[in-house]
Structures are given as C-alpha cells and as structure tokens.
Amino acid sequence: MIIGISGMIAAGKSSLSDKLHKHYKTSIMLHEFEENDEVFNTFLKWLYEKKPNLTIGFQSYIVENHTTKFNELVKEFNKKKRNWENDHIFLDRFSIEHYIFAKLILSEKEPKYLEAYDALFEKLISKDELPDLAIYLDISFDTFKKRIFERGRESEIDNWDLNYQYFKNLHENYLKIFKEIAKRFDLKYVIIDTNNKSEKEVFEEAKNIIDTFNK
C-alpha cells in the first residue's frame, strides 16, 4: 500500500514519514528530495531569492525526479517480494502536490504558462504512482513560521521577509488546492490537525489511520 504524507512546508512530513518507516519494519521510504540534491537546492535557493522564470523548470525537475525514483522504488519493493496489501511505501510529499506550488506562482503570469504546465503535468503523472491514501498534516501560519525558524534552513530564514507574502498566500491556498486535485485524481485522504500536538501524538494518530484504512 502506498501512503503519501502531505501538507504545507514545515508541516512535519519528513519527521512523520521517518517514524512510520521505522515502525512498519517491511516498509520502503521515498523522500521528496535528498539533502545533497544540488539541483533541487539550487532551484530552491533561486526561488526564494526571487529569480525570474523558474517555476516550470523547477517543478518539471521535481516531478520527473520523483517519478524516476518512485519507479526504482517499486522495482525494489517487488524484488523484495513485498505484499501490496500489507506492506507499505511511504512518500514524503508526492507528485501531484507540486501542482499547488506551480499553480500559485504561474497564476501571476499569462494564462498560457499555467495551461502549458497543466498539459505537461497530465503527461508526466501516472495514476500508478499516486498513493492509496494521503495523510494531510494541517498547520496554522503561526505554527508554520515557528517551525521554519526552528529547523534553520538557511535559504528559508535568510529570505523570510522577501517571501513573507508568498508563504502567506501558499498557506492560505494549500489545503483548498490540495482538495481540488484530490478530487481530480480521486485520491483518498485524511486530515490531521497537528497544531499543539507533539510529534509522538501525530505519529500515533497517523498509525491508527493507516491500521484501520481499508484500501
């Protein structure tokens, strides 16, 4: 079973994914990106520095990179003779979520850019790589800001003021657009309100959701 962990930047996706991966001993884990991914980190730095005309290139790289790694992971899953009903692949964010970022940024440009990305997106995304269940981690904007500064990623903190309105807009629209694309791709999901909850409490809630989910 494929489980996608979803949500706004700094919602706790990686922490939860890692905990679930450790708990479910036969599971396999796919992170959104590797910490040493030079291409991703460069694109991200440029994005926060407001370099122009990045969005289609950046989001295309992310989706193509994710699809390639996911296909490799499926081969590994099958090679290890894992069971698709009882064993798990955990995705720390998944491909269709990146449409949210692209839509918000490209909506500020001429319509043809979002239309072009839409067409590209439809071609790149396969239903086979979508999760059987998505667990969406919801956070308030205040919680988001607190976690951004706690985790100390240089490109985010150094450019906080420059990107305040972008982060605010992203937070205000993330869940709404997530629900739209979930409907578009017939994706099952559950929302966890993570505000004022410890990582352990969020983990226990997510574990109960997975254990009681009927595919």
UniProtKB/TrEMBL annotation:
The keyword Lipid biosynthesis does not apply. The keyword Transferase applies. Keywords: ATP-binding, Kinase, Nucleotide-binding, Transferase. Residues 3-210 form the Deoxynucleoside kinase domain. InterPro entries: DCK/DGK (IPR002624), Deoxyribonucleoside_kinase (IPR050566), DNK_dom (IPR031314), P-loop_NTPase (IPR027417). ATP binds at G7, M8, I9, A10, A11, G12, K13, S14, S15, R147, I148, F149, E150, R151. GO terms for molecular function: ATP binding; deoxynucleoside kinase activity. One of its GO terms (cellular component) is cytoplasm. PANTHER family: DEOXYADENOSINE KINASE, DEOXYNUCLEOSIDE KINASE. This is Deoxynucleoside kinase. It comes from [Mycoplasma] anseris. The lineage of its organism: Bacteria, Bacillati, Mycoplasmatota, Mycoplasmoidales, Metamycoplasmataceae.
